[in-house]
Amino acid sequence: MAIANLALKPVAGPVVLKDCIYEELKTAITSMNVYADGPHLRLDERQLSEELGVSRTPVREALCRLENEGFVETIPRKGAFVARKTKSEVLEMITVWAALESMAARLITENASGEEIATLREMFSTFGENGAVQARIDEYSETNIEFHQAMFQLSRCRLLGTITENLFLHMRSIRRRTIGDDDRAKRSIIDHIHIIEALEARDAELAERLAREHTLNLARHVEENVDWLD
């Protein structure tokens, strides 16, 4: 068992102290490589309160709030831990994401300007050379995540953004861990370009289908190849 070493800074300001603590802990936890090889990381209340410069009570309240959102897991007689989803839970999240992002793609064809859609293509302009994707896998991983986040922003549907806010943070961890597997990065960029072409053509049916298939391909990969979630 190892204690999670979170990148935290002291929190100040009595008016919104509880919210500040919650946001600081959430940012630190979701910035971690949750599914990296290694032990289940424990969250030590005393250490966290010292690093944040606050008492343990608001830290405990923030951890409870994060547990309700699925980022923290409390194990009886052992304490609080950074949550790792099971394989079935991950597959369920990916399925929901596929449904929501495919609708976002449809809405983009109706609501986004040509200039906005062009920004999606620009994201991948530096990964076109042979080997460029795999050689810069960490950079591409972040671009990949930014692309999926941008899809919801360009849909102009605020409720979609609200619904997917926490789901996105869970999905980000999974995408980071799996993007380097096999040739997934190369296939990913090809999928993205095809989705962008459908968006540029204002082909709602095709854009919706391609976005859904792209995410379900991740589910298929997790189902067939990922054993570190079992």
| CATH architecture verdict of the largest domain | Up-down Bundle
By CATH, the superfamily of the largest domain comes out as GntR ligand-binding domain-like
Q: Overall mean pLDDT score?
A: 88
CA(first)-CA(last) distance: 18 Å
Beta-strand content bin: 5-15%
Main sheet specs: 4 strands, mixed
Task: Compute the CA-based radius of gyration.
Answer: 19 Å
CATH class descriptor of the largest domain:
Mainly Alpha
Number of domains: 2
Side by side, the strands of the main sheet go: 1-2-4-3
* Gross morphology: globular
**How many distinct helices?**
10
Q: Structural class of the secondary structure composition? A: mainly alpha
Number of strands: 4
Elements, N to C (H/E): EHEHHEEHHHHHHH
Quote the CATH topology of the largest domain. Four Helix Bundle (Hemerythrin (Met), subunit A)
Contiguous runs where pLDDT drops below 50 for at least 5 residues:
none
Percentage of helical residues?
Answer: 55-70%
